[in-house]
Design goal:
Chain lengths: 75, 254
């Protein structure tokens, strides 16, 4: 396989990671909403933890994006 | 892509200091604009009236927001970091939001520049936060700060392994902190540019294509713009929140 083609295929495969991170972020907010509706009184106190979970899930998707960028523009 | 290029402005491309080029770039210009906008915003709210007006209320709600965040995450010792976290949060927030302003609608040929979409800037902000964590940690706890890398109750056999893993995750913090902001801002702006190019190219290809591709792209772009405003706020918040969590590690260990 040509080098250029392999790079582009790899960058495309990295997009799967971004999609999976989307599932992760959706999970974070979905689970938060689910439990927040069960106990609205405790919801506001957990917002910091919500965003920590969001940040951790999002970072992995951004890393996938970074892999794609590096494959296309740097490697 | 043109919107991310850093170029010298006002004929300053040959300015040098000790052999380094210190040209006044569009990035520096927008940093100055963000700083001045932030300065004007805060000065306008420093009225100390008993019944606050709208402007004072806006500034005070931001300061109480940061104050509450540090109170919740660091505790009483967090009060002294309010100025730093407030400046950090507001500077990133203003930078992200100013980068989204559609300036060409008002002034043809003038484009906003999102300097948070460059790793050099977000990296420096992250290194600043990380340096404060290191300085505070070693100042307060001395070499005892290293106990941060060995959680309580770790079996003795596991200590070398856990230490290495925790140290690695600790050293990754400034990297992940800067990376998150930079990639989130860059990805959003690239997405907007791609959607805009869909609209322009489909309009050039004929009326049928403009209706079929251009119209949905336009409405999607409006929605993504709203999402970008949300992301601008969330990323500034996440940066400030993670910095305060790391400060908590430095202040209170585990």
């Amino acid at each position: 396989m040509e080098m250029e083609a392999a790079k582009l295929i790899g960058a495309g495969l990295a997009a799967i990671g971004a999609g999976l991170a989307a599932i992760g972020v959706g999970n974070v907010f979905g689970s938060f909403l689910e439990s927040a509706l069960r106990n609205p009184g405790a919801a506001d106190g957990q917002q910091g933890r919500l965003f920590i979970g969001f940040a951790a899930a999002e970072l992995l998707g951004l890393l996938a994006f970074l892999v794609a960028v590096i494959l296309i523009f740097v490697a | 892509m043109h919107q991310f290029t850093i170029e010298p402005m006002f004929g300053s491309e040959n300015w040098e200091l000790a052999g380094y080029n210190i040209a006044f770039t569009n990035s520096a210009l927008w940093m100055a604009i963000a700083a001045i906008a932030l300065w004007v915003f805060v000065i306008g709210g420093l009225k100390r009236q008993l019944v606050p007006g709208r402007w004072q209320m806006a500034v005070e709600s931001f300061t109480t927001f940061i104050d509450d965040m540090l109170q919740a995450n660091v505790g009483k010792a967090g009060r002294k970091y309010v100025p730093y976290i407030f400046s950090l949060f507001m500077f990133i927030l203003f930078a992200n939001l100013l980068g989204l302003v559609p300036l060409p609608l008002a002034m043809v040929g003038v484009h906003a520049f999102t300097f948070t979409s460059h790793f050099t800037i977000t990296g420096i902000l992250a290194i600043m936060s990380f340096a404060i964590v290191l300085v505070v940690g070693f100042w307060k706890h001395g070499l005892h700060f290293f106990s941060l890398f060995v959680p309580h109750g770790t079996p003795v056999v596991m200590i070398p392994l856990i230490f290495v893993i925790e140290l690695f995750s600790f050293m990754m913090r400034p990297f992940s902190l800067g990376l998150r902001l930079f990639v989130a801002m860059m990805a959003g702006h690239v997405l907007l540019e791609i959607l805009a190019s869909f609209i322009i190219d489909s309009a050039n290809a004929g009326a049928g294509w403009a209706v079929l591709i251009g119209t949905p792209s336009f409405f999607l772009m409006l929605a993504i713009c709203a999402l970008e405003i949300l992301v601008a706020g969330i990323q500034a918040y996440v940066f400030a929140l993670l910095t305060s969590l790391y400060l908590n590690d430095a202040e209170n260990l585990h």
